[in-house]
Input
Amino acid sequence: MSSRVGILALQGGVAEHQRSLNSLGVEPVLVRRREHLEDLSALILPGGESTTICKLLDLGGLLVPLGNLIRSGLPTYGTCAGMILLAKDVLNTRPDARGFATLDITVQRNAFGRQADSFECVLDFEGESLPAVFIRAPRVVSCGDNVRVLAQVPEDEKIPPSHRGAMVAVEQDNLLATSFHPEVTASTYIHRYFLKKAGISVASEVIAH
Ligand code: GLN
Output
């Protein structure tokens, strides 16, 4: 059976992830309703507005079944708002916001400031230099022993001191999360990293980052 890679498509940066996957020869399933959850091999939770996505998940009856799938081991990659949806604890959110609460991290929403404070840098992601774009991004303020930190904002003098060292990419078991948006860059490194983690082979490993 071929692999079905889903992108949660209720709100946010769906088309950008779709383009990244397409460039790796993967045609994703856009997950909008319960029936789209069937036989998923992996799932991307895109960036957007986490409180809105939570509300739409709840209204559409997806919050519980999708949460069950994620907890039962579905490889899941959360970008920005997607990271917030996966986190066990969220600071600076609405009291009624509910996510999947599976990734053992505390995240602070909008931790680097407002939209105008969005920034870019080059990150060391496990030895790989990657372009990273932060848009009203969260930062991981603490994480459990079972969580591996894969990238931090560099100690670069062009970056505001308060941002430096922030944990911005983590993984735990079947879960991967980044504060930043690889899907808006030309690099498919993180998508390939995720698909490999999910046991999905892509058309070519030689496509340039
Ligand atoms: N600030 C947004 C939130 O809290 C996340 C922004 C993003 O996904 N680019 O949901």
The pocket of glutamine is lined by residues 47-50, 80-81, 84, 109-110, 135-136 (CB under 6 Å).
